[in-house]
Every structure is written in structure tokens, then in C-alpha cells.
Amino acid sequence: MAAVAQRRLLPAAVATATQAVLVVAIAVATAGAAVAGGWVDGAGGVILVAAVGAVEAAILARSPLSRGVTALLTVPLAVSAIVPLTAAAMPDDGIAGAGHVVVRYVDAAFTGLMSPDDWPFIVGLATVMWLCSFWSGWVLMRERRGVVAVAPMLVVLGVNALNAPTLQHVAPYEMTSLTAMVLAVGAAELSHLDDGWRWRAVPTLPRLRRRFAVAVVGGSMVVLVAGLLLPPLSTTDLTGRIFSGPRGNGSGGGGGGSGGAGGTVSFSPSTQPGGPLHVDPHPVLRYTTDRPVGVYLRAVNDTVFDRGDWFPDGANGAAADPAPFHSGPLPRDRDPSHGGVGTATAPIHLHISDFFTAPTGGTTYGLFAGEPDAIAHDGTIVGLDADGSGTRFLVVDEVGLNVAPDRLGSLDSTATLPVATVGQLRSAGRDYPDFLDSFTDLGDDERGQLSVIHSLAVQWTAGTTNPYDAASAIESHLRDTNVFHYTLTPPAVPKDRWPIVYFLTSGHRGYCQYFASSMGTMLRSLGIPARLVNGYGPGSSEEQSGPGRTNIGHQVSTSDAHTWVEAYFPNYGWIPFEPTPPSDEGDYRPLPRGPVAVDPTPGPTPGATRSPGPVTSPTPAPGSTGPSRPGAGPSVWARALAGGGLALVVAGLVTGLGLRWWRRPGSLAAAWRRLGVAGRLAGVRRGPGETRAGYARRLAATLDPGGGAAPALATVAAACGKAEFSRSALDDGDTAAWRHAWRSVSTPLLRAALRRARSIVRGLR
Amino acid sequence: VTSRVPLLALLAVLSVFAGITGVRLAYSLAYVLLFLLIVAFVWSRLAGRRLEVERESPRGHFVVGEGFAERFTVRNRSLLPLPYCELHDHSRIEGYRPGRACALNPGGSVTWTTRGVFSRRGRVAFGPLEARFGDPFGLFPRSVTLAAGEPVTVYPAIHAVEDVLSPLWLGSATLEQSRGRPVDVAPEVSTVREYDPSDGLSRIHWPSTARTGRLMSRVYDTRQSADVLVLLDLARGTHAGEGSESSLEYAVSLAASICHAGLRRGQAVGLVGNDRDLTAIGAGRGDAQRLRILEYLAVATDNGRRSVDQAIARHGRTWRGRGGLIVITSDRDPRWVEALVEAGERGQRHLCVFVDPTSFGAPGPPLRLLAAWRLALDWWVVRRGDVLGNSSRGRVAGL
Questions:
Q1: Among A561, A541, A651, A659, which residue's Cα sits nearest to residue A606?
Q2: Looking at residue A445, what is its pLDDT?
Q3: CB–CB of A119/A89 below 8 Å?
Q4: Distance (Å) from the C-alpha of residue A737 to the closest C-alpha of chain B?
Q5: Number of CB atoms found within 10 A of residue B72's CB
Q6: How far is CA A394 from the centre of its chain?
């Protein structure tokens, strides 16, 4: 006989302490998750407030105070926890008086979470966290209701996960909190049971508590591991389709290369990812080059990063005011050793034969098929001059022409295209010239958003050993259409978040400005000099017949406005990257490297078809040379695993439910129908005039020659007979008998019927 | 509201928003909640399916105050540990709580024995037994009820009252014999024994002889005194008190004790109860009669619609001249005393066992025993707390 333990197996103090630790862990981890979410700066005190709330609740829960008294104590306790930690940071509004301070606190406590200011937000967050912590502690330790106790905290975790400005450091806190919650639910259940046993004077046998604790921990681990390993069903953000509204930072329309005023796709010299755009294509120009395919047409470089947006600026470093030049070669420093131009380049000539409308708005910019080299117009140049003389530009950001936009009849320009190979670029190193310092500048971090981008860049480029692989990894991540999607209607951006941060972490949907801005910012965050280029994509190609030759012309419309990225590599200059994935709006392909960059083998497609990217990339897919891509969504095997697991679960559920339905008929008639189904499966049909008992005997003899099923089937048949012909209805004993008989025979019957059906089918074959 | 409701609500909301936003962390939260529900459900179902509870209960019949022992075994045939299992016994045995709470490893078992004492008469079933168990998170608690076993019969407590009743019986028998009245009760066979050569042929019990192959002789009960008819008042509303400390239990116990004592002395004892069925057990002797009376007294309840004076009037007349009448009642209505006096005849004396209801908390004045009643009847007044055995002789009034 097992010795009966009349006492509680562990001292109550141990159980209380365990629960208190779990409550505090939940409070601290949940508050930590909210703080790590980047809602507001300087909110570290909220963690302490939450911990204090949990401790206060734990103490009160174990005290003899009633619920009413405790409810009365909540206000002073909350005030004593929140005010000391937030009073010092209260901004001075010039009004003195204790009453005013009280009003400000009350207002912040109730509406602070909706305030754009930091202090009210912190007070509001602290109030919510204190209340949730106190509730969790009290309900868990006094009321012994685990799920009800942690429900508010779960809500906080959910809201934080769905809306936090950054999720970069949130996951560890949330998982810690979730673990503590699951354990706390188990601990509360044991306390609840223990209370009941003591109340009902039920003695507990030895090792109960230990075994229960082991079960809780084991179950929790299974739940958490399974929950964390399973990949998400989808990483597509549908909020933009479901919820409409302007982006939080007020930048409404498009901008940049593909943006335009009023939300129409058109050229813009700046890159400001914003709200939705629509396409209203108008012809802009027609061009040819001395190469067989279409090219990107460069107009303006964006070199200044400002809070998520990019702007052209002539003030980079020693940049001077626009410097005049005359038609012909641009006044550039062409010494490769100075870093302004690269060594491995090839010239490309651009001839724009027709301008249908002003290509670059009110300012006439020179258009080039690559790095600007010469142009057949007078004008001014903005860029980075080596010595301020206006004759040795190391960087050319824009070339303004001295002609009105509507007077521009044709244009000829020469540029250089990089032909450096992948191997050369990989070995280019990081010995950047000094004049490129400003090309890694990102300004001040705003609420940790740059750190989010940097962390993501580090994550994506993990394992790379050189800037080229890093840039390729970022490019391939952004081009992964399983994760990022091109759309002209990106989702609304939450308040106080940069569009590119939301795009990278949550939205994953946007147009070329989003992709280019994101890649440029990530490159700069890694210390790789980068700039954005605004201009046009290749446009549509069309066959042009001239005297003695057939040339390929390209027509560009406003909807071909585009933004892409260039990164600097020592000795090779600015190398373009295409982070925008292909879509219905444009088939943007990775840019080729090496000699094929200027002489691709595939010929252009005649006729008015959409031009592909400049050339087909001969280089290995960046994704194959880059590192693995954590955070970019589930891999194929993970999806297959998840899908297979889900299919197995569904199949198991269906089989289980089907077997349950088979084994538990609702009535005797249903049982007889099932018996008939089994008979038909086995090819044994009830003959006309055959009694139920006879049919049951025949079926049993066919399916189970051993005779084990015969008595049970006979019982079912007899019950059917009694129900059908007897004056008295079936009594409880009869019902129990046929149910028991059916339960004992149903599964073997089904199995035998299926086996026989299979053999019949094989025989037919 | 069970714990599942808020969890399901949270899961539903979180799933919707995780699907809309595609945030992996939200998915992870939703998955954890989903798996929590799934694991808890599966755990609860699987553990319950392979749980075995075995109960070894006593059988037969017992007497109030007698002890017993039960043995319980719980086995977990599942591959999952059983976080907890509480056995809750629904037996109505006062002060007996055999239930235990335990936890079992996969394939583990636990056994314990409990002891108890029957404190109430009646037919007592051991069970039903309810096994409460579930998952460690309390989301899907379950219970399985095991049917009760065969009930045992618990007879009323029997006290040694022979000395208390001896004067009555002896007096009645002496009177009858002194008047030379014929004994009109046929001899009763109590058992058989081996044939003795001195036995007459008429004494041979031929069925037993045929069955055993040896000559067997009858053994007759010897009549030592007159018959006794015990009339137990079971009218509704007469008795007071609750549970074992009620006048009904005292009365039933006294009836059982008196009948037992009479039967042991070889008297023919009958029992009449004015319950709803107006039960009447004819006078008889031996163990069979004793068991018959005790079986009835084990379940007797005060649900009668006729008062005790009506029962006395009815049975007193038919019993007249056969022996003593013992009335056990708590009725304070003096009509039954008068009816009993009337039922007597010259030389016949009846015994009144009055279980005073006021001592059990009944409102109102106690029954005043008039001098005439004391002269006409023998009285034994029993109050709450009295020891009903021989040591209580001093409390017997009128004897």
C-alpha cells in the first residue's frame, strides 16, 4: 500500500515563491518586449513598473485582504509605482501646481498611448503594464486561474508583435514571457487542484507535485518548440488591401524615380517612398544606343539620406555650386587612381531622337546610359569636385542642360558601363577613397529605426566576406518574390515609422523606391558607399529600319521612371544593382557583370515588346553565392515540412473522426446501415427476403470465418428484429447490448470489409 | 467561463491578424496557443482512455459499528504521464473518504487501502467512484464514473437488552404456565443432527437422510417463554433528530436489540411497523426470523401514514392472548397509551419503550406519564445519549 501523504508534499512557500517568480518573469519579459518594440525612447522604467506591479500583487494575493480592499489599494499602489519613475522626465509646460500635475498624469494614463509625445506615451505604457502585471499576479496567486491571469499579457504580446515599430529584439522577450505564461498556467492549475483537494480533504499520494511539475514542463516545452519551429503560413502583409489610410509620416504621394506628384508614376529627382501610385503612361522619349539592348537612363543621383528618404544634393563633402561646362566631355577627373572613375569600363553612346514631353520635369537633366562622360549640350554639373575648380569632378550627381525642357529636340551623350567581373568585384576590398565618406552617412538614428535596418543588413549578409557578396545578398533578399512583392499600392505605414523600416520588417510590399531606398540604406549601414540613381528603365523596344541597317529603338514612357542603386568598389567605381523584383509593372532583372554587361548575346525582341533589363545576367544567381537568408521567410523544405505535417494532421483528424463516426452510430438503424455498407464493400448483399439474422450470419461467415464476429453481429441483428417487430421497445439493456456488440465488431468488420474489397478489386484487374 | 474560452478568443483574434500582417512573431504566438490547446486536448483524451481503476469492496452484511476495508488500485496504461488523478467516492458512508489524489508515470500504478466503519444502517453501495483527471494546464478536465458495486446491508446496532427484558418475559411465561393454559404453538425445527438410537422414528428428517446417506434427526426449538410482538412506530413526523442521533435510529436499534434478544432466548418474535407499507412480520423463531427482521430494520424509515395508536388497535386485538406487546415509539399523543392499555387483558402486561423526542430537539412538552399508565404498563423511557445496553438498567422506568 502506498503511504498516504496527508500533508502537502512541498511547503506552500515553495509553491508561492515559484508562482511569484513566474509572475514577475511574465511582467518583466512582457514589458521588455514592449520596450524593445521601439514604441518610444527612454521607456526602460516601464519594466521596473511592471515588476513592481507583479510583486505588489503577489504580496496582496497571499495576504488576508479581501478583493474589495485590494481593489481600493490599486490606485495608490499604481501611483506609487509609476510616478517616481516618470516624474523626473515630465516635460515642463510652464504651468505650475500640483493639481495640474495630477491632471497631466491622469490624462497621460488614459490617453498616453495615443499621444505622439514621449512622456505621455511612457506614462500610458507604464499604466497598462502595471495593471496587466497586477492582474496577472492577483488572479494567478489568489484566484488560481492561469489562463484568465495571463490573458491581458497575451493581448499585450499580440499587439506588440503586430504593431511594434521594430521586431528586431522583441522575439526573445516575447518567447520568454510566453514560456513563463505557459508554466504559470500549469502552476496555477496545480494550486487550484491542491486547494480543492484540501477543501475536500482528499489526501495526496507521494510524488504528485513533482510528477505534475514534470508534466507541466514537458508539455510546455513541446508546445513552445512546436510553436516556434512551425513556419508562418504566409509572410504577405495584407493590411494595405484591407485597411486603407495615409502613411503615418504624412508623405502622401510618390516621389523619386518612379514617383510623382499626385501619386502618378513619373520621374522625380528625390526618392521618398510613400503612398499608393497609379499608372498613367505617356510617351517621354525614344532612344537608341550602340548596344543591342535597352539601357537604364540615368538622370539624377540621390546621395543624401534623411530619415528614410533620399535626396539629390550638391553639398556632398566638397561639392560646389553647379559648375558650368561646354558641350563635349564632362570636366571629370578621369584618373582611376583618384577613384572618380573605374578601370574596367566600356563606353556606351546614347542617342535620344525624340522627346515627346519633358523627361525630367521642370529641370532639364542630361540623360546617360551609365556613368556620365560626355554630352552634346552646354550646361551645369553638380557633383563632387576634387579641388573646387569645377574641372575635376570625382562624382557627377546631375548634369543640367542649358535648354528649356520643351525645346529639347534630341540628345547625344556618352557614358561608361562597368565591365568588372564578379571575381574582380569580390576582390575589390574596402579601401575606399576619403571623398566617399559622405556616401556612408545616414544621419542620426531616429527611435532605433536605423539600428533595425542595420541589424537586418547584418542578418542578411551573415557569412559574406566582401562588400560585393554583401551587396548581392541584400539584392537577392529584396528580389525574393516569396518575401517581397512589387506593388504600386503599398500598405499603410504605422505612425512614427519610416516606410522603408516598415517595408523591410512587416509590409514587404512596395515599388522601386522602397526596394532601392532599402538597399541603399542597408549598404550604407554596413559601411559600403552607396547612392540611388533616378531615371528611366529601358522602356519598350521597337525595330527601326534605317538606310542600310536595322536598328533597335526604345521608347520610354512616364511609367518607366525607375530608381536603382549603385555601390562603390575601389578601383572599379560605381557598380549598379537592381533590387526591384520583376512584376507586371516591370521586368527588372539583375544587372550583368563582366564584358557581357555591354555586349550581351541575346538579341532584342523585335516589335513593340517590353524591354527586359539591360542584359541577362551571366553571373551566378546572387542567392547562390550569398549566405543563407534567415528572416526572409520559410525555406522550401520548411514549407514542405509544414505542409506535410499539416496534411498528416488533417489526415489523422479525418481518419480519427471517421473511425469515431463508424464506431459510434447514433441509432440502431444507423448501425445496421453501417453493417450494410461493410457488406456491400465486401460484396455480400442482403438478399430479398433474407432475415437480418441470416444476413448477419452470412456476413460474419464471409468476413470472419473464424466466427469471432458472429455473436456480435447476431446481437445487432436481434436488436434490429426486436425493434422492428416486438411490441415493447428496446430497453436500456438491449441498447447497451447492441452498442457493446457493435463497438466490439465495428472496427474488425470495417477492416475485413476493406481487405475483402481490395481483394475483389485485385481480382477484377 | 472555462479556461478555454479566453484562450480560444485570443487564438482566433491573433490568427486573423497574423494572417493579415504576415508577422512571424504573431504566427509563433498563435501557434503556441494552438498547440497548447491541441496538446492539452490530446493529453486529456489519451490519458483517460488508458486509465484503469480497480476497487475491491467488502461484501455481505454488517452491523452498525462494524469496520471494513477497501483496496484501490489505479493504473496508467498510457504512454503519457498522468499529471493528476483524483478518485472521488460517492459512497454515502458517514466519515468515510477513500478518495486520493495521485500522479502516475507512463505504465505506473498505485495501490492503497482504506478502512472505515459503518455508522448508519441501510443498504450501502460502495461507489460510484469518480476519477477526475486532465491535462496539466487545466484546459480539458475530464471525469470517468465507475459504477457502484453490489450493496451491502448494514443492520442496526444490536445492544444487550436481555437483562432489561427478563422480568417482562419471565413474568408473562410464568403467568401463562401457572394458569395451565395450553401452548398452541407448534414446535419448530431449528436444525438437524446425526441420528441417535434413542430418537424416535418420527424424529428422523427423511429429506436430509436421503441427501446425506445417513440417518439425520430433527432438532426442535425449545419454548422458554411467551411470544413477543414488537410494534415499531414509523409514522411520519413522529421522530426527531438527524442522522444517527435521531429518535428513529434509537427506536430501530432498540427494536433490533429486543428482537435479537427474544430470538436468542428461543421466543417467537414478530415485528410490526406502521410504515407506508404497514409491514408486518409474523412471529417466528430462529436465525431465519432474525435475518428477516434485521433485513427489514436495516432499511426501515419513518414514512408511515397511520399513527401508532391505529397500529396498536389493529394488531393488539389479534395478538391478544399470545404474549407480550412491546411498543417502541416517540409519539407524545396519549391515545396510543390508551389503545395499548385497552389491548391488554388480564394477566398480560405490555412494555412501552418511549424514545423521548424532546431530548432529540423536538419542540413542545415531553410526554407526562400518568400514574395509571405506570400501573397498567411497563415503561422504558430512552433519551438521547442513553446507553442502550445492560448498563442502562437504572434508567428503565417502571421495571
A1: A541
A2: 74
A3: yes
A4: 17
A5: 23
A6: 40
Q: Which three cell numbers stand for residue A452?
A: 533595425
- DSSP lists the bridge partners of residue A20 as none
H or E segment and range at residue B170: helix B162-178
The answer to whether the CB of A543 falls within 8 A of the CB of A292 is: no
Given a contact cutoff of 8 angstroms between Cβ atoms, the answer to whether A599 and A291 are in contact is yes
Between strands A323-325 and A283-289, the pairing is unpaired
Residue A244 pLDDT > 50: no
Instruction: For residues B152-175, give the mean pLDDT.
Output: 68
CA distances from A456 to A37, A495, B220 (A): 15, 21, 108
Q: Name every residue whose Cβ is closer than 8 Å to that of residue A548 and which is 6 or more positions away in sequence.
A: none
**Side chain identity, residue A401:** L
Of A188, A212, A237, the CB nearest to B21: A237
Q: What is the mean pLDDT of residues B311-316?
A: 88
Residues forming a β-bridge with B219: B191
Q: How far apart are the C-alpha atoms of B132 and B134, rounded to whole Å?
A: 7
φ, ψ for residue B104 (rounded to 5)? -130, 140
Coil, helix or strand for A664? coil
H or E stretch covering A160: helix A146-163
Q: Count the neighbouring beta carbons within 10 Å of the beta carbon of residue A691.
A: 13
Q: How far apart are CA A164 and CA A597, in angstroms?
A: 43
What gap in Å lies between CA A249 and CA A241, rounded to an integer?
19
Q: What is the pLDDT of residues A339-379, one digit of tens each?
A: 888 888 888 888 888 888 778 777 788 899 899 999 988 88
- Structural contact between residues A617 and A592, judged by C-beta atoms closer than 8 angstroms: yes
Query: With contact defined as beta carbons under 8 Å apart, do B251 and B308 qualify?
Result: no
Structural contact between residues A704 and A748, judged by C-beta atoms closer than 8 angstroms: yes
Choose among A325, A326, A302: nearest CA to A315. A302
Between CA B85 and CA B75 the distance in angstroms is 10
Please provide the DSSP assignment of A183-244 as one string. HHHHHHHHHHHHHHHHHTT--B-TTHHHHHHHHHHHHHHHHHHHHHHSPPS-----HHHHS-
A268–B contact, CB cutoff 8 A: no
A507-543 tens-digit pLDDT = 888 899 999 999 999 999 999 999 999 999 888 877 6
User: Strand locations in A663-739, DSSP E?
Assistant: none
Task: Say which residues have a Cβ less than 8 Å from residue A489's Cβ, sequence separation at least 6.
Answer: A240, A241, A276, A277, A509
The single-letter DSSP state of residue A623 is H
> From CA B268, how far away is CA B173, in angstroms rounded?
12
d(CA A397, nearest CA chain B) in Å = 38
C-alpha cell at B372: 395509571
Please answer whether residues B62 and B118 qualify as being in contact, where contact means their C-beta atoms are separated by less than 8 angstroms.
yes
Q: Where are the beta strands (DSSP E) in chain B?
A: 51-56, 61-63, 67-76, 82-89, 101-104, 109-117, 122-124, 129-133, 142-146, 152-155, 189-194, 216-220, 227-232, 241-242, 245-246, 269-273, 280-284, 323-329, 351-355, 378-382
Compute the distance between CA of residue B166 and CA of residue B184 in angstroms, rounded to an integer. Answer: 22
Q: How far apart are CA A538 and CA A182, in angstroms?
A: 57
| Amino acid symbol at A560 | D
Closest CA to A441 of A530, A563, A501: A530
Which residues are paired to B86 by β-bridges? B101, B132
Closest Cβ–Cβ partner in B14, B97, B110 for A158: B14
Q: Is residue A504 left, alpha or beta, with left meaning phi > 0 and alpha meaning psi from -120 to 50?
A: alpha
CA distance A157 to A170: 9
DSSP H stretches of helix in A489-604: 499-502, 512-525
Q: Which of residues 430-449 of A touch B (CB under 8 A)?
A: none
CA distance A284 to A536: 10
- Which of B22, B36, B86 has its CB closest to that of A234? B22
Report the candidate in B23, B136, B144 with the shortest Cα–Cα distance to residue B90. Answer: B144
Q: Which residue out of B24, B73, B80, B143 would a mutagenesis test of the A interface target, given it has the greatest number of A Cβ atoms within 10 Å?
A: B24
